Amino acid sequence: MPEIDKSEGSQQEESKKVDISKLLAIIPSASELRGAKKTLSEKRIRIKYDRSIDKPIAKIPAWIASELGIKNGDVVEVVVAGKRKTTFTAEVVESTENTVVVYPVELEKQGVADNSIATIRKAKVQ
Length: 126
What we know:
The chain is an alpha/beta fold. Helices cover 28% and strands 32% of the residues. It has a six-stranded mixed barrel with strand order 1-5-2-4-3-6. A hairpin with a 3-residue loop joins strand 3 and strand 4. The chain is elongated, with a radius of gyration of 26 Å. The relative contact order is 0.23.
């Protein structure tokens, strides 16, 4: 009786298997089919004071502004601890940092320290 080499059979079987991940790569996801890009409504960031700013402006990095759908001149809310809410006029700047530079006067009145963590969002128009 001839001997069958099992190692040859298993090698042929492995070469016949199709890598399913390559097939799935060509199937678009549901969000791509809908074509809707989801924008965030708010983001947690670190705020820093800039005493050279003389009016209520928030300098927001461009990558954060694009995620939140904020443009130059939009009104944004900065909320600290869910209670201390202040509005600023957005100014989009080119930066790679994860910080928003703000006008300090209003936040200092509310007892918010420099370099605090806050939530930023586009203000709702009433």
